[in-house]
Design brief:
By secondary structure, the chain is mainly α. It has helices spanning 2-19, 21-30, 41-62, 72-101, 108-126, 135-155, 169-201. Helix 4 (72-101) runs antiparallel to helix 5 and helix 4 (72-101) crosses helix 6. InterPro entries: DUF1405 (IPR009845).
Length: 202
């Protein structure tokens, strides 16, 4: 199961960066190369979740019988994966079908992206008992999430939208910020649930 998720996420990450390739080139040439980290939102989320699965695989190979001790780097990677995978999983599906509601055609790529991004949101919840992050990494990733929102809609490096949604940009921006709040709350709730479950197992 873990190996399957690892390869699915890794290949999906590569596909995602290829998907953003034209926008990455446009951003570097017309805005600034410094903005590039803020462009490919979904593939960066899946990249971090791939790293989380790598940690879980390493735990299984070491034969850990209980949850490993939390570390700063791992905690930040896990919190980043949970918050951004949930956020952009929901965001991408919402944008695809908001565009469809306004008349855009949803071809096979739209359906593929819908399934894959719903999977991103779902898998962020899948291993809640095995995460190690605490509250500090949540705050660190929250700061990144809101800064990324500012870069997207304040600077203009948001993912290219269906044409029908371009005139709805203020609503899209507001929805994205709201999703940031919701995703941060989800990460916090998962941490509290994990804590309760751990106490019951003691």
């Amino acid at each position: 199961m873990l190996w399957s998720l690892f390869w699915v996420n890794l290949l999906g990450t590569i596909y995602g960066y290829v998907w953003y390739w034209n926008q990455l080139i446009y951003t570097a040439e017309n805005l600034s190369p410094a903005y590039l980290p803020f462009v490919p939102d979904s593939p960066t989320a899946s990249l971090f979740f791939t790293a989380v699965i790598g940690y879980l695989l390493a735990d299984s190979y070491r034969g850990l019988a209980k949850q490993p001790k939390p570390g700063w780097v791992r905690g930040i990677i896990e919190a980043f994966a949970v918050i951004t995978s949930f956020k952009y999983g929901i965001w991408a599906v919402s944008m695809i079908w908001a565009g469809a509601y306004q008349g855009d055609a949803v071809g096979w790529q739209g359906w593929m992206l819908t399934v894959s991004h719903l999977g991103m949101a779902a898998e962020a919840l899948l291993y809640l008992q095995l995460y190690t992050y605490r509250i500090a990494p949540i705050f660190i990733v929250a700061a990144w999430a809101f800064w990324n929102d500012y870069m997207d809609y304040g600077v203009g490096v948001y993912p290219w939208l269906p044409e029908s949604l371009e005139d709805d940009l203020p609503a899209v921006a507001a929805f994205t910020v709201e999703l940031s709040f919701i995703s941060i709350i989800v990460a916090f709730v998962l941490m509290k649930i994990r804590s309760v479950l751990a106490k019951r197992q003691v």
